[in-house]
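User: Can you model how 6R9 sits in this protein?
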Amino acid sequence: MSNATNTIESVLVENRVFPPSDAARNGARIAGMEAYEALCKEAETDFEGFWSRQAKEKLNWTKPFTRVLDESNVPFYRWFDDGELNASANCLDRHIGTPVENKTAIVFEADDGQVSSITYKDLLVRVSQFANALKSQGIGKGDRVIIYMPMTIEGVVAMQACARIGATHSVVFGGFSAKALNERIIDAGAVAVITANFQLRGGKELPLKSIVDDGIALGGCESIKTVLVYERTLSPWNRVEGRDRTFAEVLEGQNIHCPPTAVGAEHPLFILYTSGSTGKPKGVQHSTGGYMLWARMTMEWTFDIRPEDVFWCTADIGWITGHTYVAYGPLAAGATQVVFEGVPTFPHAGRFWQMIEKHKVSIFYTAPTAIRSLIKAADSDEKVHPKNWDLSSLRILGSVGEPINPEAWMWYHRNVGGERCPIVDTFWQTETGGHVITPLPGATPLVPGSCTLPLPGIMAAIVDETGKDLPNGAGGMLVIKRPWPSMIRNIWGDPERFKKSYFPEEMGGNVYLAGDGAVRSADRGYFRITGRIDDVLNISGHRLGTMEIESALVAKTDLVAEAAVVGRPDDLTGEAICAFVVLKRSRPTGDEAKQIAAQLRDWVAKEIGPIAKPKDIRFGENLPKTRSGKIMRRLLRSIAKGEAITQDVSTLENPAILDQLSQTN
Ligand code: 6R9
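Assistant: Here's the modeled complex, given as structure tokens:
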């Protein structure tokens, strides 16, 4: 039986409860459930007043807002929309003249273990100079800039500098392919790309700049006028004259002051592409005001961030978690944070624990997939078990990206948290901008495997297809019934898709549909996320659309006739990609099948990125289809899991195909 099935069963019988310790509760911003409930009540009774107070208290406005929420064009909600502010000023300038200015903003640990750090004051200078450099290249307010950078201080500087001049950034994860980059450049209509010559991961030097060149060469990128290159390593790279400039060249002589450009609260701070249920990734557009409010508030609510904390979120800036909890939230909160360039298993699988000890990390935020792989490593090699390091600096642990199975939760709790640290299992999405359902460390009694309760002001519910509330214990669709400040504002350039994807007509057109299934516990009403209900897969916490991978496979036109992709449970990565492929030639078997499968995996890595490589590839002469020609994915899901087919297959055009697809090559 697979681990995921185990997980579901063990969650169903999960009855361990971990109330907050006195240490976690004492001095917490939200101390105890009474305090949490009082905030929820306040948000319910005076919804706009609640958000107005938060936004005034937590953000610096250059022009105060007079309107809180504009609902005149649902679902295009507008928050604080006549107010003006700057995101970078709210992360940096805000601290100047306070004790935070000389505090360390970022401790950077490189792949090879070298450490450097920068104070808030110096970070402001770095960001300002780089912002001036961007201006010198003709980049300004409203322009879109692609960032394709490794995890470095420079990556954060690039994002902050764009925000400072009102340019909208779109960060593309360094593991995405030239093709993926090309599509994003075109969709965003970007004027510049900020990249590095190489990135260092796991002791290897991996190219970035040459992939940018390849991406632009694929065509349609005439909007790109400038490519800025951070020379991360000494290795040579190919310069395109007239277009490429190094960081050193554009920074030369730049003024250390750059007044932040005030923008309207609804000005798009960034676009971040994520997978949806069709082949084309969605450009999730976020605001400046509401988003920044959330970044700061959730640092305070969920992580209860304190001046002496050392915060470490292991996510890459290419994902939403790296936006809200690396590039913006910790800085807005005036925290010291660790930024890590490398991978958890290099030079050994104790790297995370070693770094927690070395930097005295007090809040550690990572993904279940990392925890599971480190459990496996510690089980097979005592030397990398967390017990070998002093983790007593830890105060709070966090989890994000996918459901955390109770076994992994308990291991994290015991072996990393020393049974002392609350674990905040934070549920949220690229679209939500920040946490929406999560425990609060000083208040919420924890139940392993549950993200517990919505934050104050988040009207989360579980409903059926018509939008009707379901009772606790009944599984259904997760929705949020009222807007919230950091919600997605639009899909870049595609308002129709925005409406269709997130605000279904059947539910009245004003309820946010998360795309996840969920169930609330009978006793506490705690939420447990059961996984996506659309065609989105979650591989190691990374979102990928089945259609996206199918399109990539069939784009190999010399070989592939048809392909269907489904997910199956996987012990380590949560879900694994399983592709069923019909070739244009006869069905291969044995070594030949293995060879073609390897070829297709490489092809998908080139089309999308290595994270999208199917784990299983099965060949058939056909795919199971209904008489009307629809691929029956639920049958494919059963086959992928290795389950016996018990469903009704009478509507199937070609039932014999099931046996063929069930055979592993
Ligand atoms: C932040 C992030 C979003 C999808 C989401 C859900 C899954 C995230 C989770 C979780 C269970 C949690 N997800 N956090 N599932 N428990 N604590 O991951 O954003 O990349 O957009 O993915 O991830 O399925 O819908 P994103």
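A couple of observations from the model: The pocket of 6R9 is lined by residues 274, 319-321, 400-403, 425-430, 451, 514-516, 529, 532, 538, 541, 543 (CB under 6 Å). Residues 1-11 have pLDDT under 50 and may be disordered.
User: Helpful, thanks.
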